Amino acid sequence: MGNFRNRNRNNPAISTASLPDIVFMLLFFFMTVTTIKNEELLVENSLPMANETEKLSKKDRVIEIFVGKVKNSKVDYFQIQMGTQIVNIDELNHAALIALSEIPEELHKVAIVSLKADKKVNMGLINDIKEQLREINLLKINYTVVDGNVF
């Protein structure tokens, strides 16, 4: 019974000697796992606004296509950018197949094309892009917009 009445003992101090090791281990883990997107935007595009939007939840299956005017150029027509290069409408299939080959093969059937087009692009060019993507069976297209009031 004497052991239970001795409540005046101090608790031992918690050792923090391994804390820096744990912090550096976590830092090293996040440095190796994190990827940085190095894609430079070659075209200017101001995205249109929309009232009701949804975010894409799985970004590992997204192929991005940018449509806009070339930055710092006197060219007055809209260009298509895939990856780090400007492509013509005739080269879009080839560039899209290259982008499709960069995602895992099990995600090919659920791949989504994210079309980030300037709000002043005419629908004829958008329709041409959709026809080219239809030829290589990329049928899921997402139009990227800015969340805001249209009116």
UniProtKB/TrEMBL annotation:
Pfam short name (any one): ExbD
Transmembrane residue ranges: 12-31
Entry's localization field: Cell membrane
The keyword Ribonucleoprotein belongs to this UniProt entry's keyword annotation: no
Keyword terms, alphabetized: Cell membrane, Membrane, Protein transport, Transmembrane, Transmembrane helix, Transport
Membrane topology: Single-pass membrane protein; Single-pass type II membrane protein
InterPro entries assigned: ExbD (IPR003400)
Domain of life: Bacteria
Stated family: Belongs to the ExbD/TolR family.
Record's protein name: Biopolymer transporter ExbD
Organism listed in the record: Croceivirga thetidis
